[in-house]
Design brief:
eight-stranded mixed β-sheet, mainly beta, Rossmann fold, 11 helices, 13% helix
């Protein structure tokens, strides 16, 4: 074990971690990050510290090269001896491990039987039983306080048709065509799943010893999520998602309580807005939850609220935050709650007392996540830096600066790699707005030379680039590229006003933010401004296509999974929320949609532009990229369309992730000049 001490030099704004990759070591390393490295990388996830603070459960992931997928197994670490035991083996996935209240058993989800089911293991014998045999995947598993029951959520499909018909009698054994699908919802499919059957998500309870048939304790037209037990085991608190009466209304959700003896449900909140994520204090007197008042913002950051267990004495606990709080957990003594929050690219642990006093517990240029707190205040968590993928750490709440590395499965792979150094950039956009970004130098950087630079734009657009490890960027750095990534307006981590900067204006001034970042990077003196490239996926694909229609300063571009034509997109994507990103409906003001569509500016494009899509994408359907591709072909511009088979908006198979990186590099290398001395 060793202490973590991230290096920060204000003079040059270098962000680095001294724990594994001291800057002086970069130039001494011999290896560069090649494509084969991706297959050797491992992952660590889902840390859960035991109630007594003596053990940590976590998952260890790797690539199953034969099945072209990721796999994971469950591990157990004894914190006193640092011995690690493998609790499960095999080519399947394990997730969501949870300790029993007495620390003698664990439950977890695993697809070892072919579908995700709840399993339980006795730690003294490692005997494992499958508690469920469900038709649909369970989620949100939680132990009851006495360890006798386990709650979980599961989707329940609705039977019947909104317009039933009856066919005439066909002969027995006749082979009929598939029946029609009759739809009367505004949203009927979702990316990664396909068609969504009608139904709701409900809460169930199952005996932790016997398993068997679970007991459904909620029902009705609302979906219920995130159940949490009261300390005495008599009540479950949960979020209830109320469907809007009209299709264009935003969803509303409230916090509910259900009496397990009578199954009577009581709504504890009643405002217009999404209240969710109830967390019960150790003494059962208080409930912390997140939410916000409904409004017309493009996107909303959540606040943290507090109320008593009966729904009274509601008050704002932490508001006007740079980002939405996550991983909300009560302090063991009930004095307040801990939460993690991403701010200006980093993520740290925070504490807010019941009186509303906020304290930043950890402070570092790193990305802390997956925090689990034991009764004695010992913490298990994941951490990551620019130079280091997720690794398992521990610290005590009374000594948060003393962060100790426990497990780093990639040290043997990356320890002798020559990686690209990262410099933080702050610049001003055209209207004076401060914008943050980061510039990664080529791994084999030599002062006095100029290098090609790749601008990589994040999706969302409401999301945040962070100080975490990124294999794709380091792989480009190994090939002699500098890589620039920015958080333009619309990004989280800088407050609600910054997010609102794209209200009815996307794309718009975010283009100026990105170009200001490019100019700031060029000012560093080692970027060849005639050798610039740009890419991004989803929202980043939108901005990539927008960029090539508004400037010719890039030598080549790859727009991945983009929206090209907002007019056709809003009616074909997998949700209805995008109608609210515009002031009018497309039939009311078509020009509003046209003027914000990259297709509207395709006649300006002279940059060689590749389109890349998953052919099963339901979020940004492949037809969007095809519109841009065909228009470029009609205009006789250099273009190509790469279609990844059987992939949705994300990328599930390992080989396809590698394939995408190779196509990006092949396209950019085709137009790239050699570094200039």
């Amino acid at each position: 074990m060793r202490n973590l001490s991230p290096l920060f030099s204000a003079a040059v704004s270098l962000l680095a971690s001294a724990a594994l990759f001291p800057l002086a070591g970069f130039q001494q390393a011999e290896k560069l990050l090649d494509m084969d490295t991706y297959l050797e990388m491992e992952s660590v996830g889902s840390p859960r510290i035991s109630p007594d603070g003596d053990y940590i459960l976590f998952t260890r992931g790797s690539v199953d090269k034969m099945k072209d997928r990721n796999q994971s197994n469950l591990m157990l670490m004894d914190l006193e001896t640092e011995r690690i035991r493998e609790l499960t083996t095999g080519s399947f996935t394990v997730s969501s491990p949870i300790w029993s209240p007495d620390g003698t058993r664990i439950v977890f989800l695993s697809d070892r039987s072919g579908t995700n089911q709840i399993h339980m293991m006795w730690l003294d014998t490692r005997e494992t039983v499958q508690l469920t045999n469900l038709d649909r995947a369970p989620g949100g598993i939680r132990w009851s306080p006495d360890g006798t029951m386990i709650s979980f959520t599961m989707f329940i499909p609705e039977t019947g048709s909104p317009l039933p018909i009856k066919l005439p009698a066909f002969p027995r054994g006749a082979e009929l065509a598939k029946p029609a699908v009759v739809e009367d919802r505004i949203s009927w499919r979702s990316d990664g799943r396909g068609f969504n059957p009608k139904g709701t998500t409900q809460i169930f309870i199952i005996d932790s010893e016997l398993g068997g048939t679970p007991r459904q304790i909620t029902s009705g037209e609302e979906s219920h999520s995130n159940p949490r037990w009261s300390p005495d085991g008599t009540t479950l608190y949960f979020g209830g998602d109320i469907e809007p009466e009209e299709g264009y209304e935003r969803r509303n959700s409230e916090i509910h309580a259900i009496d397990l003896a009578t199954l009577e449900i009581t709504a504890l909140t009643d405002r217009l807005g999404p209240d969710s994520g109830p967390n019960v204090s150790p003494d059962g007197r208080w409930i912390a939850y997140t939410g916000y008042d409904q409004n017309e913002n493009y996107s909303n950051l959540s606040n943290l609220y507090l109320m008593d267990s009966q729904g009274g004495n509601k008050r704002l606990l932490a508001g006007d935050l740079p980002n939405s709080p996550g991983g909300v957990t009560w302090a063991p003594d009930g004095s307040g709650v801990h939460y993690t929050m991403g701010e200006e690219g980093a993520s740290n642990l925070y504490f807010v007392s019941r009186s509303g006093e906020i304290e930043k517990v950890t402070d570092g240029v790193h990305y802390l996540s997956g925090v689990s707190i034991a009764d004695d205040g010992r913490v298990a968590a994941l951490n990551s830096t620019f130079y280091r993928p997720n690794y398992l750490v521990t610290f005590d709440l009374d000594r948060p600066d003393d962060i100790t590395t426990l497990v780093d499965y990639n040290e043997d792979v990356l320890g002798d790699m020559q990686l690209g150094e990262v410099e933080e950039i702050w610049t001003e956009s055209s209207d004076g707005l401060p914008v943050q970004g980061w510039l990664m130098k080529p791994a084999n950087f030599e002062p006095g030379r100029e290098y090609p630079m790749l601008l990589w734009i994040h999706g969302g657009p409401v999301s945040m680039y962070t100080v975490r490890w990124n294999w794709n960027w380091q792989n480009f750095a190994a090939d002699g590229y500098a890589v620039l990534w920015m958080n333009p307006r619309g990004s989280t981590g800088y407050g609600q006003d910054f997010v609102n900067g794209i209200n009815y204006l996307y794309p718009g001034m975010d283009f100026d933010d990105l170009m200001a970042g490019v100019d700031a990077a060029i000012d560093r003196g080692f970027i060849d401004e005639d050798n610039l490239f740009v890419t991004g996926s989803s929202g980043g694909g939108v901005l990539t296509a927008w960029i090539v229609g508004h400037t010719d300063r890039f030598r080549a571009a790859v727009s991945q999974r983009p929206v090209i034509n907002w007019h056709s997109f809003v009616g074909t994507t997998d949700g209805d929320g995008w109608y609210r990103r515009f002031e009018s409906k497309p039939w009311e003001d078509p020009m509003e949609y046209a003027e914000r569509s990259p297709l509207h500016y395709v006649g300006n494009v002279t940059t060689p532009t590749m389109l890349l899509s998953g052919d099963a994408d339901l979020r940004t359907p492949i037809g969007q990229a095809e519109e841009f591709y065909r228009a470029l072909k009609v205009l006789n511009q250099e273009t190509m369309h790469v279609k990844i088979p059987d992939e949705y908006h994300g990328t599930r198979s390992v080989s396809h992730r590698i394939m995408i990186q190779l196509y990006l590099k092949a396209w950019f290398d085709k137009y790239r000049d050699k570094p200039i001395t």
